[in-house]
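Readers of this paper often ask what the protein records in our data store actually look like. Such a record has a labelled line for the sequence and another for the backbone structure tokens. Nothing more is needed to write down the fold, since each code stands for a local backbone conformation. The remainder of this section carries one protein's record, kept here as part of the documentation.
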Amino acid sequence: MSVDQRGCGDPGATLHAVSSAVLAVTRHLSVHEVLQVIVRAAAQLLDARYVALGVPDDEGSFAEFVVEGVSDKEWEAIGPLPRQHGMLAAMLRDNEPKRLSDIRREPEFEGWPAAHPVLKDFLGMPIRDGEDVLGIIFLANKQNVAKGEGFTKADEDLLSLFAAHAAIAMTNARLYEHNRELTVVAERNRLARELHDAVAQKLFSLRLTAKAAAALADRDPARTVAELGQVERLAAEALAELRAVIFELRPADLVDGLAASLRKHVEVLDRAYDTAVRFVGDGAVALPEDQEAALFRIAQEALYNSLRHSGAGVVEVSLHNDDDRVVLEVSDDGAGFDPVALNGGDRMSEPSPGGLGLASMRDRARSIGGALSIDAAPGTGTVVRLEVPA
């Protein structure tokens, strides 16, 4: 329902509609998601058949261009992203709202692809942060109104109000992504330092020892054997240090989402260990950031247990939706263990501190309202299962 249908004399309904649209936008943090929700909310708020939002770049085109009302098939037929010409260029140049009864009659109406939907009534608005234009949003072909009426001054005022809130959401999303990038860089630098301090020095010592062994091979076989023993010890220590760093690896703020982050982590472990480590997931899991971080840490701890203690040939991580729950499982075909023995003879008691990190996993599960279960027995492998309300 448009603002005209609600009635200009009903400011409460108008405010509620704007508030709902703004809340829909501000729930999201990534720039692309924010843009998508802005065009969707604008279409609903103003009953527009088509809505588009372009974020201009410095090369005469658009860094982002999202649309609502055009199918993927239609978009493919339209062709590449539009450039800053015609009406789009005029809006960027004038930096003012533009409301037209029929855009096709305007001199700036040019360069539109043949496959482009037919546009008539038009309402365009710059999205500004102070003097900076963050983007331009334009709506076309108003629906559910008397024939020929098109967009009104009330619609223009409403879009102006919404665009001001959209600018805040876009700015916040950009700041969030920039901060996330800085966090990723900091995490990479930390890991680089750890790799240098913990591994590089041992590898340097290993290289020197190997050279000494080679030099002694002909004249002192006994000393050579001792040096080779030192090489083996240093190599084992370096590998242990490297694996410890790998276990600390985590995408900062789970940049790519929980499923993608777990998949990448599993791929790293699969290359670092002789054990086959696999990931199975449907990629559709979406939880609040704190819950995703807890699930990642629990999976990490369960993987650590399997790879360090179970002697498993295969470890599998599974992540999927099950009705109203998200389910994470880490299973292995290793030696398993006796939960009763681990808990001092009480199967129902909490695992003791330090008992393979099980207490830590249970604490993390409780903190996000999840339920953790561990199915294990000597000789039958282990399954760690976490269920979290979606």
Summary: The first helix runs from residue 3 to 6. The radius of gyration is 30 Å. The chain has eleven helices and ten strands.
